[in-house]
């Protein structure tokens, strides 16, 4: 759902109503599947297709309208640059002031073109995703209907052809401007470009060209004299002469000849009875606005005389005042006149944020009638936008203030129709301002009465949009000024209220504001979910804890009624004799502000060229390698979409990234821009044999193909799966989930804690496993890690480091003898005490019946030994943080450490195993303050698997599990003998592990489905808070289990059992076994 959840973020805010409604289409798909006849299992997608076709048509119309406007603007600029020629190879005489104005217009046009291109890209992604889902569902039901896609395919093809033609024309225009500027610089030398241009004009005796020269030179006396002479000679008709003077006035504005412009507008127009119209007004506003917008860009690009002209004379505002004065009584008609784009002067004043000019226009219009200012402000152009829209879109708060003041009579009018039109527009504009996060504008609109804050045309209230943005101050403003009687108006697709979306997005502060304002918590969305469940499933457990549990939900509704989704089987089959390179673009640790693909800022020269899109090609150097294409920027959450490349020899292979740009002349053709390469061979040489870094991220620079300049960089995370050398891998043993909950003894009889309220046997010991089984555990869980590379023996130990020696030593830095010695030295006689007998002195089979030795807890030797052990460990990481170390003498009934082989051989086969593969994680190394280095991951796994394949009893159920995603991936690739389960805290605070794939229940489900894992084990907090999430996991085709201290509370265990959980892992095995037994007995009696 990441694309759907982020869909609003990809949208151009002011165009939001014109996007294909992807969330609605997904909802219609699910509705059709739910409504399918169980007998035929044939969903009726008629409503989906109808909605999709209608919105594709609407999208096509909107795109074409905006494309036509862009095309007209390109043609207009072509005409300005070469008015009498069809080719730009022959351009008119032009000065750099005029050329810079054209260049600014082209840059504006380029930005607007990229905006439309992005609009197309997002809609295209949405449509393709919906069609992909439909095709997948139709294939699964044996029904196909390709005819529905033809219209979309045709639209795509037509758009691609027209867009290529358009970008070619735009690039031609840009190239011509650059060439003219370059030629102008060469020709003029130290002269002004105006001198150069004037010399061309002087070659002609044409009086009109002479007049033009006077305007360019900004020579008012000469211009006045020549006009009078031309007028007196009667060489032209009166109408023709008026047109010449009008054109000269327009040219004076374009050339930046402000003295000439002031003369023509204030004197010449009245002297020769010329009427001013909207064209010059628009031109003056546009040039003035562009000068402000491109102030820094312009300064270094003009010759000294043009630069002087640019700053001399009256300001544009004063010049505009002169023009406005000429409008006199007929001004209202001119102000309402529209240009080729449906805009009048006020539109342009709002676009460029010129409050002085906007106020002049409004004051003048008011003289023509009280209703005229509002009429101007509310006038729509061909893009369906008013001047007020443009002021908001471009973040011009001062202009908006002027407009709102002028609109006050309309807000207070008795004409309900006009008033509600304004209210609807202001609602939409408030939503746009919130999406853009324009603080000043949001403050202006937030002060309006509550009726302005209801649903916008997009079906969302301003409060909902503000809550989704996460901006606490926006929500606070709306709540204070809006006087909301109803905080819980839902949006129209999912039925989410502002509180719901705050929970979905994990905005704690916003949710608290809404709760303090009495937002309702007992509401269910259209799928039956509560806000609390949405927060919990996404890993926002602190936020979920702020909300109350209703306790009245239908146990089979909401999350528990999620559509059944069997695990997706990978289409790629993994060979046991092949290496595989698994790559994720970007980083997989949250909190790192690193983009997967980061391109450097483009130079001004590069900004001139309009591109048609970028692609990145990823491939391996080996012959026949598959090639993956990624459209940039990627709109897909790549966390659970890794690329998998088969590799024959990883030590000699390299990973290649090529950056491609869509051709501006040929559809579906791409030009190489640059590339980068990363060697993927084992970096073990840097850390020693069989060692590797826990940091799996790599960053590769992308070099430009010709200059080798850095274009950008690509960051990726990878792991290599190597084939296991074991010759006879046993056949698969599918995990059979028995009816009722399975109780797992956590680390045997329980994890060691600081509590002294009950007897604690040393965790992960043989005695602990035997007692757990005796007290009712059907499965025992233990952590498996691997000792030093000198022997690489899988040992049973939970923590990252060993502290018994007095220092924190990672387990992989110890050999087996050193590891076992750290346990043995804790016994005063070198032989640890056992409640079941001497573990090291006799076989396990006889320990249960052996006589318990006399307790030595009071002997002086024992007391002295205990003090020595605690003193030795008191500065180690675990002891400082917890005040103890598990399975140490003095705190627990200590037993000796053991190995995986010993457990497989000596524990009865009736005891099932849940083996947690304890591979170090990055945050553990950081917390322990040691280097993030561990045994090479394939070696680590292979050693454990070899022991399992050699000593694993066919009658014993064995489950493999891990907190480390890479361990789960490699286990799934290397073998299918044993089921694999992923363990995650699922957002349980405090969050120390920043692994994205383990961040939430939702993320873990996606990860498990991607790699065909058997199930998931979560920290129990989320499932206790929201028990219906158990069936959400199960209906995704996965076994659901839980672990954690909450499972030691009988009521919590019963709650999860009632929800249908498969596995409960507990420390208080006897207590929870009795509780579950009582619950199951009661449930049977009530059935």
Automatic annotation (TrEMBL):
SUPFAM superfamilies: Ankyrin repeat (SSF48403), PLC-like phosphodiesterases (SSF51695). This is Ankyrin repeat-containing protein. Keywords: ANK repeat, Hydrolase, Repeat. Residues 747-1076 form the GP-PDE domain. Residues 842-852 have a biased composition (Polar residues). One of its GO terms (biological process) is glycerophospholipid catabolic process. ANK repeats lie at residues 458-483, 494-526. Residues 1-148 form the SPX domain. InterPro entries: Ankyrin_rpt (IPR002110), Ankyrin_rpt-contain_sf (IPR036770), C2_GPCPD1 (IPR057506), GDPD (IPR051578), GP_PDE_dom (IPR030395), PLC-like_Pdiesterase_TIM-brl (IPR017946), SPX_dom (IPR004331). GO terms for molecular function: glycerophosphocholine phosphodiesterase activity. Residues 842-865 are annotated as: Disordered.
